[in-house]
Amino acid sequence: MSSTVTPSKPNVSLKPEAMQVSPAPGFFGELVQETLALTRRLFIQLQRRPSTLIAGVIQPLIWLVLFGALFQNAPKGLFGDTVNYGQFLAAGVIVFTAFSGALNAGLPVMFDREFGFLNRLLVAPLASRYSIVFASAIFIITLSAIQTSAIIAASAFLGAGWPDPLGLGLISLILLLLVLGVTALSLGLAFALPGHIELIAVIFVTNLPLLFASTALAPLSFMPRWLQMIATLNPLSYAIEPIRYLYLNSDWALNSVVMQAPWGAVTLGGALLVLLVLDVVAFFIIQPLLRRTFA
Amino acid sequence: MAPAVLIEKLQKRYGKVEAVKDVSFQVEPGEIFGLLGPNGAGKTTTIRCICTLATPDAGKIEVSSINAIANPKAARQKLGYVAQEVALDKVLTGRELLQLQAALYHIPGKFAKERIDKMISSLGLQEYADQKTGTYSGGIRKRLDLAAGLLHKPDVLVLDEPTVGLDIESRVVMWDILRQLRDAGTTVLLTSHYLEEVDALASSVAIIDKGVVIAAGTPSELKDRVGGDRITLRIREFCPLEEAEKAKDMLKSFPFVQEAIINVAQGNSLNLVVTPQSDALITIQQALQAAGLPTFGIAQSRPSLDDVYLAATGRTLMDAELAAAGSRDPKAERKQNMK
Question: S-S: B273 plus which of A217, B207, B258, B269, CB 3.0-4.6 Å?
C-alpha cells in the first residue's frame, strides 16, 4: 500500500451539475433494485468464502454415511416400509440439511449489526427495510436448494433412489415451506438477541435436539410414548414424514397418511398445512422484532 | 435561505444516561460546521439522531427543510453519512461496495456506473477500487466510505470524527477533500474532539459538553468572547516547581496578567492569560531576567478553542477526555449503536 507515497491529491469535483433524476421508478422498482443489490452482496460473499456452503453439504453427507452404516445390519423391515436404514435416513438428513442451513440465516445479519454495516443500510432511503430480510431469505433459499440437491443426489447414490418427478417437486415445496419458516425465525432472533454469541447458542441448543426429537433418525415405533408426542409435535417431522413417504410411494395423494401419531393420523395435505401454518406464525412472531429496528 | 440542518432542543436518553440534554444549532448551506466536544459529550448521539438512526425523545430536526423525525426517508435521501467506525464488507471490493450503495440510494444503473467511476477517480481510489476492502489501510477505508457517502450527491455530508485513527498524512488529505467539497457547494457537518481540526476547517462551531451546547458561533467570535491573549512560558525545559511558583507569584503582580497557571503536565510551564498588549513578552522576559531566571521558551497566541471550552466548563478538553475515558462503558455504548 502507498504508505510511503504521498497519496495523489484527490480532486473532488462535486459541482451541482444536475444528476439526471430518472422518472421515479416507484416503490416496487426501488424495492427490487435494493433487494437484488443486497442479495448480490451475499452471493459475492458466498463465492469468495464458500466454506459455509461446503460445510453445509459435508456435514449431512457424513451423517448419511456414518449414521447410515450404524444400523447397516438391522433386520429388514424394522424401519417400516423402507428397505434399509440408508433409505430411511435419507429423508431425515435432507430435512436436516435444509433446516440447519435456514437456522443459520440470521448470522450474517447479526454480524452486520455488530460491525455497523447494518447502519449503512439503515441510513439509506430504502423503499422498505424489509428488503434486507427478503435478500437474506432469497440467499438462504438458494443456498438450501443447492445443499439439499447435493444431498438428494448423494442419497440416491447411496441407495435411497429417486422419487418420481412430481414427488420431487412436492419435496421441493415441503423444503421451501420449512426453510421459509425457520429463516424467518432465525432472522427475527438476529434482530432480537444482543450478539452473535447468543445467536450461536440458540442455534446450538435448537439444532440437534430438534433433530433427535423428530422422526429423522428413528421411526415413531422405536420411541417411548412421551417422545412420540414430542416428535409428532415437532415441525421437522411434518417435513420428514411426507418426504419419506414420497420417496417410497409413487401413488401418493394429498390424503395419503404419512404419519401415525399417537393422537391421530397425519395426511400429506395435513403436513403441508402444518408447515404453512408454521410459516404464517413465524412471520407474525418476528413482526414486532423487526419493527423495533425497522420502524 | 433555509438552514441546511436545523436542530432545536434535541433530547435523547439511553436508559438512565441522558446522552443529549439540550442541543440546538443550525448549519448554513455551503459551510463546514464543526460540533466540538470531548468524547462522551453527546456528539455521536446527536449525529445518529440527525441521520435517522436514533429517534430523539424531544426536539426538532430539519434537514434541507425536511422534518427528519416525521419523514425520515426523505431526510435520508438528502444526507450522506460517514460513521466514525468505517463498516466496510471486507470481502467486497471498493467498487462492489459503491455499486451496492448506489442501488440502496436507487441511482439508476446507467448513471450509477458513471457516478462510481467519477467518485473513484476524484477521491484518488483508482488503484484500490478493485481490491477487497479488507486490504485497505485506514486512510483508504475512510476515503472509500466518503465516496460512498457522497455517491448520491447529498445536500449535507455528515461525518462523525472523520480523522480519528488516521495518520497525519491521511488526515491532511481528508481536510483537503472536505475543503474542496465545501468549495463545490456541499454542506459539511462534522464532529470532532480535535480542536485543530475544527479550528482549521469549520466556519461555525458549536461546543458541546455533557449533552448541552455550551458555546456557538464562528471560531473567531468564540475566541474574542473569551478575550485576552495566551502566553506560554517555559523557564527551563523541565522547571522545578518552586521556580515556577516563584515566577508565577512575580508575574501575577503585573496588572496585564489576568491569570497564571502552572501546567504540571508540561514540565511546569506557565500558562498566562494577559490583556492584549504589544510589549507583554518583553516585559515578562525582563522581569524574569531581573529575578535571575532564564527563559527557555515563550510564546504568545490568541485564545484557542480549548480556552473557549475551558472558560465555559472550567476544565480543558484534554481533562474532560481523560475524565470521560474513566467513566465510559464501551459495552453499553456499542449496544446503543447496534440497531
Answer: B258
ipTM: 0.83
A34/B150 CB distance under 8 A:
no
Q: Is the pLDDT of residue A14 over 60?
A: no
A11 to chain B, closest Cα gap in Å: 5
8 Å CB contact of B173 and A7: yes
Confidence band, pLDDT 50/70/90 cuts, at residue B328:
low
Predicted confidence at residue A5, as pLDDT, reads 43
Task: Yes or no: say if A254 and A268 are a contact pair by the CB < 8 Å rule.
Answer: yes
**Is some CB atom of chain B closer than 8 A to the CB atom of A72?**
no
Q: To probe the interface with B, which of A12, A52, A128, A187 has the most B CB atoms within 10 Å?
A: A12
- Smallest CA–CA distance, residue A203 to chain B, in Å, is 21
Query: In this structure, how many other beta carbons lie within 10 angstroms of the beta carbon of residue B49?
Result: 25
The boundaries of the domain holding residue B13 are 5-223
The residue that leads in pLDDT, B322 or B248, is B248
CATH, residue B269 = 3.30.70.920
Which residue in chain A is spatially nearest to B72 when comparing CA positions?
A125
Give dist(CA A4, CA A14) in Å, integer: 28
Read off the pLDDT band of B24 (50, 70, 90).
Answer: very high
Answer whether A89's CB lies under 8 Å from A67's CB: yes
* Per-residue pLDDT at A11: 56
Cell of A245: 413417504
**pLDDT tens, residue by residue, A141-154:** 999 999 999 999 99
Chain A residues 225-284 with CB within 8 Å of chain B? none
Domain boundary among B199, B223, B247: B223
> In chain A, whose CA is at the least distance from the CA of B71?
A125
Kind plus residue range of the DSSP H or E element containing B59: strand B58-63
